[in-house]
TrEMBL record:
A motif ('KMSKS' region) lies at residues 265-269. Homodimer. It comes from the Bacteria. It catalyses: tRNA(Trp) + L-tryptophan + ATP = L-tryptophyl-tRNA(Trp) + AMP + diphosphate + H(+). GO terms for biological process: tryptophanyl-tRNA aminoacylation. It is an enzyme of class 6 (ligase). The gene is trpS. It comes from Noviherbaspirillum saxi. Its main location: cytoplasm. This is Tryptophan--tRNA ligase. One of its GO terms (molecular function) is tryptophan-tRNA ligase activity. Belongs to the class-I aminoacyl-tRNA synthetase family.
């Protein structure tokens, strides 16, 4: 009933590195050409953990947008915006909070995990407890169908789905809904009306998911229905409520295959990362000074690639011939470590070249970035306002809409 739409956000807590690119960003770049996408800087989310040190948020926000553009996010295809510039997210967060059981928030695994992990911060705050609720508002406000995120975020998406279901259940009631739905069925014409009723029964009595899908597809094609009747019939399929908010699905982002310079997960806090747009000399130096198999003390000592973090980079960046050359050369001491690292240096620089190029335009003229974001915020806000009109009305606040 509502168009397919992708929503995802990232917190501006520091510069992006190649691990982010090989994990999330590459996936975003791919999705932008498949479906309408909204990507945003989750600056309020950054404040939930960094409320006592907000100084890095502003610079990180703009750097991050430049990183996205550098990575190939195309503002002509995707909508890029900043969370705090679409204040409707906060309004929905507040309204959702009214009926959100505390236990749902307390039980989200990231709540306790992060508190333990970031023990140097006091995260026993109201804002931090509400983190997943704000995230739910970010997504539900666009009636998004898909949310590309990493595995750690799955519980958050599950909670969003429950919130949407609960919201529709509580506020999707309409006086005389059943009668109105029956009226709308008649408007389908007798053949379709019969099919609709049969499929609905199959789904409700036997839980057949394909019957539900088939009925939805039929409604999508039915042309002589008004928006409101269509909405009723979608809601009536699954129960006796209007669907005001949509339950989104996860699109799992594969974990980055790119390890850090020391073989551990790439992370800025481990000091083992390469920034997305790091300058060439630094990249070259970082790779040339990477640790290797500790058994190779002298050039003449044979080594074992399986014990070397450089080999892990070859597995991401090199073709079979090069990999063969590494395996043989290392184990026979036929090649030296610097020699072995050179193809990795070349491949990383080559990968970054178009990124540096694309970024240059925006670094030379930052007003371009502001314009892209301003335009994205306008677009996002229009969509958010549409949903909020329905939400307010459903919650008895219709008089606040003009
Ligand atoms: N919590 C997400 C993360 O840490 C960031 C985020 C905030 C987000 N709002 C979102 C992701 C909405 C997807 C959709 O990665
Ligand atoms: Fe690592 Fe390559 Fe040196 Fe072998 S030759 S230890 S794989 S850097």
């Amino acid at each position: 009933m509502y168009p397919d739409r992708v929503v995802s956000g990232m917190r501006p807590t520091g510069a992006m590195h190649l691990g982010h690119y090989h994990g999330a960003l590459k996936n975003w770049v791919k999705m932008q050409s498949e479906l309408p996408c909204l990507f945003f800087v989750a600056d309020w989310h950054a404040l939930t953990t960094h409320y006592d040190d907000p100084s890095i948020i502003e610079t990180s926000t703009w750097d991050m947008v430049v990183d996205w553009l550098a990575a190939g996010i195309d503002p002509a295809q995707a909508t890029l915006f900043i969370q705090s510039r679409v204040p409707e997210h906060a309004e929905l967060h507040l309204l959702l909070s009214m009926a959100t059981p505390l236990g749902w928030l307390e039980r989200v695994p990231t709540y306790k995990d992060q508190q333990e992990k970031l023990a140097d911060r006091d995260l026993a705050t109201y804002g931090f407890l509400g983190y997943p609720l704000l995230q739910a508002a970010d997504v539900l406000i666009y009636r998004a169908s898909l949310v590309p995120v990493g595995e750690d975020q799955i519980p958050h998406i599950e909670m969003m789905r429950e919130l949407a279901r609960r919201f529709n259940h509580l506020y999707g009631k309409e006086k005389g809904f059943e009668e109105k739905a029956q009226e709308a069925i008649k408007k389908l014409g007798s053949k379709r009306a019969r099919m609709y009723t049969e499929l609905r029964t199959e789904f409700q009595e036997q839980g057949k998911a394909d019957a539900l899908e088939q009925a939805k597809a039929m409604l999508d094609e039915a042309q002589n229905l008004s928006m409101i009747d269509r909405e009723r019939l979608f809601g009536y399929l699954e129960g006796s409520r209007k669907l005001i908010l949509v339950e989104p699905q996860v699109r799992l982002t594969e974990a980055s295959r790119l390890p850090g310079l020391d073989g551990q997960k790439m992370s800025k806090s481990y000091g083992n990362s390469i920034a997305l747009r790091e300058d060439k000399d630094t990249v070259t130096k970082k790779i040339r000074t990477m640790p290797t198999d500790p058994a190779r003390v002298r050039r003449t000592d044979p080594g074992e690639p399986e014990k070397c973090p450089v080999w892990r980079l070859h597995q991401v960046y090199s073709d079979d011939t090069t990999k063969e050359w590494v395996l043989k050369g290392c184990r026979s001491a036929g090649i030296g470590c610097l020699e072995c690292k050179q193809p990795v240096v070349d491949a990383v620089l080559k990968e970054q070249e178009p990124m540096r190029e694309r970024a240059q335009k925006y670094l030379d003229d930052p007003s371009l970035v502001r314009a892209i974001v301003a335009d994205g915020c306008d677009k996002a806000r229009k969509l958010a306002q549409e949903t909020m009109r329905d939400v307010r009305e459903a919650m008895g606040l219709g008089y606040t809409s003009v």
